[in-house]
Design a protein that fits this description.
Order of helices and strands: EEHHHHHEEH
Radius of gyration: 29 Å
Structural class: mainly alpha
Number of strands: 4
Shape: elongated
Distance between the termini: 41 Å
Helix content: 55-70%
Strand content: under 5%
Strand order of the largest sheet: 1-2
Number of helices: 6
Largest sheet: 2 strands, antiparallel
């Protein structure tokens, strides 16, 4: 059971572990961002620049989070939290820009890629009707837009949750350095002690009693 003096992410995951998970996830997203552009074969310099910038931002974010976890210092945790929220805003703007770009300037390029793939797949089956090919290309383009939209929404959601975890972890580290506990994820409070444990402790200066030992009338242990 989780200690009462600590606040947990999702009721069971320590915030330090949560920051570790999101830091590794940021590194993975950075790698996926550049891989998706290279995999799709996009040749536009603007799209590549956006992918490179996103990869660099995710890389810095992941390394910053891992450093705050390893060294567990308030300054590093605070910098990571501020950096994460800053990146959340930047990535949201870049993702929105990418969606607009995909729906406007890159539309013809994506359709050309879809058409080339469709022609290659149906090369062995004979000629393809122009009307059918046009419908398939349009369906392929809409599918790409759908995947990009869902990916953007999931990405922003993950960033928002990660920002919340980073903020809570910063508060926990701050309280830890003060010798306090992180009470309800909001304030630094004293560590709660189990009342039964406190009751069973022997006062200082008294010898530890054996179960079969007792004191006589003079106060001497027998």
């Amino acid at each position: 059971m989780a200690p009462t003096h600590r606040d947990y992410c999702c009721f069971c995951i320590p915030f330090r572990l949560g920051v570790t998970i999101f830091s590794l996830l940021a590194l993975a997203l950075g790698g996926f961002s550049i891989w998706s552009v290279l995999r799709a074969g996009v040749t536009d310099s603007t799209a590549k620049t956006v992918a490179y910038v996103s990869t660099g931002i995710y890389g810095i974010l992941g390394v910053s989070g891992l450093m705050s976890v390893i060294f567990k210092r308030y300054a590093l945790a605070k910098n990571f939290s501020v950096l994460w929220w800053t990146v959340t805003v930047l990535i949201t703007i870049l993702s929105t820009f990418s969606m607009i770009f995909l729906a406007t300037r890159a539309k013809d390029e994506v359709k050309s890629i879809c058409q080339a793939d469709l022609l290659q797949n149906e090369n062995d089956s004979g000629a393809v009707g122009l009307a059918t090919l046009a419908d398939d290309v349009e369906a392929c383009y809409k599918y790409v837009l759908l995947i990009a939209g869902v990916g953007t929404a999931v990405q922003v959601l993950v960033l928002l949750v990660g920002g919340w975890v980073a903020s809570r972890y910063t508060g926990e580290v701050k309280c830890y350095r003060r010798g306090k506990s992180f009470t309800n994820g909001q304030t630094c409070g004293s560590v709660q002690v189990n009342p039964l444990q406190s009751f069973n402790q022997q006062p200082q200066g008294y010898p530890s009693a054996h179960p079969y030992m007792h004191a006589d009338s003079k106060g001497e242990w027998l």
